């Protein structure tokens, strides 16, 4: 069984992020993984990521200095 990893870079995309994540998560299979990389967003992007955390959704938070 093949699996895929989807990596989404995020920076201040809160306005569109929930629609994006909902679309992707609905199509994922149990053996796929979604990696969200927040590069120091100043909006609510990180909290939207946290709201969508599931067993195969991983969040990486970087600070953007």
Task: State the gist of this model.
By secondary structure, this protein is an alpha/beta fold. The protein is 32% helix and 29% strand. The N and C termini lie far apart (41 Å).
Fold topology:
Blueprint: E1 5-10, H1 14-27, E2 33-39, H2 45-51, E3 57-62
Parallel strand pairs: 1-2, 2-3
Helix pairs in contact: 1-2
Task: Describe the 3D structure.
This protein is an alpha/beta fold and 65 residues long. The longest helix has 14 residues, at 14-27. Helix 1 packs parallel to helix 2 (45-51). A three-stranded parallel beta sheet has the order 1-2-3, covered by helices on one side. The protein has helices at 14-27, 45-51; strands at 5-10, 33-39, 57-62.
pLDDT below 50 for ≥5 consecutive residues: which ranges? none
Radius of gyration using CA atoms only? 12 Å
β-strand number: 3
Helix % is: 25-40%
Distance between the termini: 41 Å
**What percent of residues are in strands?**
25-35%
- Let me know the average pLDDT: 93
Helix count from the secondary structure assignment: 2
Principal-axes geometry comes out as globular
Largest sheet: 3 strands, parallel
The structural class is alpha/beta
* Biggest β-sheet: strands ordered side by side in the sheet: 1-2-3
Order of helices and strands: EHEHE
Key descriptive features of the protein:
alpha/beta; globular; 65 residues
């Amino acid at each position: 069984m093949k699996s895929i990893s989807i990596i989404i870079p995020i920076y201040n995309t809160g306005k569109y992020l929930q629609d994006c994540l909902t679309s992707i998560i609905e199509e994922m299979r149990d053996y796929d993984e979604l990696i969200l990389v927040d590069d120091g967003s100043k909006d609510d992007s990180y909290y939207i990521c946290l709201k969508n955390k599931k067993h195969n959704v991983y969040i990486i938070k970087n600070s953007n200095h």
